[in-house]
Every structure is written in C-alpha cells, then in structure tokens.
Amino acid sequence: EDQVTQSPEALRLQEGESSSLNCSYTVSGLRGLFWYRQDPGKGPEFLFTLYSAGEEKEKERLKATLTKKESFLHITAPKPEDSATYLCAVQEGSGYSTLTFGKGTMLLVSP
Amino acid sequence: DTAVSQTPKYLVTQMGNDKSIKCEQNLGHDTMYWYKQDSKKFLKIMFSYNNKELIINETVPNRFSPKSPDKAHLNLHINSLELGDSAVYFCASSQGVQRVQETQYFGPGTRLLVL
Q: What is the mean pLDDT of chain B?
C-alpha cells in the first residue's frame, strides 16, 4: 500500500481557474510533509514544509494546508508559468529517516 | 552559485559498462542522498550518507556503490550496467537527520541511458 497518494495524476486548468491538488498519507508519526515543484528536465524545487495539522503556508499563488490525513496545495488564479509536476513527500519518525514521495500531479495551465 | 551540482548531466552507455556520477553541495549540509526517478517520474530513495557515513541503504542491487570522500561530496558508481538502470538519478542534501527540519535540496539530475 502506498504511503503517499497524490490526486489527480494530471490536471489541466485555464489561466485564472483556481483548483487544489491533494496529497493523502498513511504514515504514523509524521515528522514533516513537503511540497516540491519539478519542471521538465530539472530537479525538484522546494516549496513548503508543514509539520502539524492546521498549519498553512503561502507563496505567491500557492497555499499549502495540512490535516491529520492529507495536505492540499491550493492554486489561486494560476498562470501558464505554474505548469509543472507538483510532488508531495512525507518524513516520518525520528532519527535517521528520509522522504517518501508520491507520484506527483502534473499541472498544465493554458493561456 | 549552484547549491547541489551533479556531473555529468547526461550519460549514454552500453550494457555491461561501469560508470560513475558525481555530486557536490556547497550548502554546508551534513547529509546527502541519492534518489532514482523512473520513467513514470516516481522518485525513490536509494542511499543516504551523514558525515561520510552510510545511514540509509534501501533495497538496491549491490552493483550500485555510493562513496562519500567528504561531507560535501557523494558519488555513485554503477557496475555492469543493465537496461533497467536507465533513469534519472538525483542527488540531494539536507542539514542533518537529527534536526526537526529536514528539507532536502535537489541537484539537477543525471539522465542515464543504457543501450
């Protein structure tokens, strides 16, 4: 069973059409939930870290929220330059641990 | 200045060859990682080093051997390359596993194609 599930797999929006991406997780002892953006041919670029349920973070047109079971990445009035794959990852437990990634949501924003 | 850099960016080679990928970070981080991203874009951890010591070793064929000469460098050597090794390999770094905030910063990737 996947620990991190992202939906939808792909999303096509018109410029200005707001929407949300979902990341649900089943790990216990969440240490942190991370959102990354990945452009074609490039490495993942860090966007947000969330630690506790109820936490929210914003950056330009993006807003990330966290509950005990899932996280949402809200995109308000997207622009074509927001087109990318958005990756969600979780880190659990303490001590030595790493990130477990979801399979990503590919977002395409048309002008 | 590039925070996490990898060389080469592209690597095309024949099955059975041995190749290496190099990674360097200038962030002063203690921990470095190798990830593999397959054709479906799924990113999966392979190895992690903290201060030159191997701390995470996922189920990876022993043809893959990471080496960390110092905490700013982490190299990946692959022996007897197979077709299934074709993927994009990403290096990443973070401050250190004992800290709460373990944001990882990724390099640009090395695209490996085995023919």
A: 91
